[in-house]
Design goal:
Layout (H helix, E strand, L loop, with lengths): L44 H16 L4 E3 L9 E7 L5 E11 L9 E6 L9 E6 L1 E7 L5 E7 H14 L10 H33 L5
Length: about 210
């Protein structure tokens, strides 16, 4: 599924200017990925356009979630289109996400495979809680609470990590990180070629875009 792209709307805040035609995924090692993002304090058409751009970028990259700092935007924001373990699809976004600290006795840690747009081609097992609750705001500044279980909980935890300046490699042992980086080196070109093919297919349908 691809979202429709709304026209660019000027905004007073240059950090919220739509990044259409110039969005790119930032690799692990870039400074914007390794520090906590800033809270968003202005809501308006610039934010709405940025969210649309992020959805489009996420779909081109064939992933289930995307944080703003993965495309170089220093804001606490992520989007997602992710199923849970019951096959229910969850699509949305959240601004300034803060996770609830859940009672350890009421949750389980699950090891399951996890990838990342900023570590292209690598897939590793990562321990995550089987339930997550994240509080924040929607694009209009209205309070928002998102609760997920299973794979969707993993997605919420992964993206919240991103806006806090962490990537899933940080949760791996030294040996596991080395293996993830080896996978990335082996598969990166294949992943980039697939993204480029997705952009080409989209160009034919609705005008010129860039990955």
């Amino acid at each position: 599924m691809l979202v429709s792209v709304t026209p660019t709307v000027p905004d007073a805040n240059p950090r919220l200017q739509p990044r259409r035609n110039r969005m790119r995924l930032w690799p692990v090692g870039e400074e914007v990925l390794r520090r906590p993002c800033r809270d968003l304090t202005e809501f308006g058409p610039g934010l709405a356009a940025l969210i649309d751009d992020m959805f489009l970028t996420m779909y081109i990259a064939e992933r289930a979630g995307l944080a703003a700092n993965q495309v170089g935007v220093d804001l606490r924001l992520f989007v997602y289109d992710c199923p849970d373990d019951d096959g229910v699809r969850h699509v949305g976004h959240i601004v300034n996400p803060v996770p609830d600290q859940l009672d350890p006795a009421a949750r389980r840690l699950l090891d399951d495979s996890e990838g990342c747009l900023s570590v292209p081609g690598a897939v590793m097992d990562v321990p995550r809680p089987d339930r997550a609750v994240v509080r924040g705001f929607d694009r209009d500044g209205e309070p928002l609470v998102i609760e997920g279980t299973g794979y969707f909980a993993r997605c919420l935890a992964h993206e919240t990590d991103h806006v806090n300046g962490h990537v899933y490699l940080d949760r791996l042992s030294k040996r596991e990180r080395k293996e993830a980086l080896r996978q990335m080196a082996d598969r990166r070109d294949e992943v980039f070629a697939r993204r480029a093919a997705n952009v080409e297919a989209l160009n034919g349908a609705q005008g010129t875009l860039s990955a």
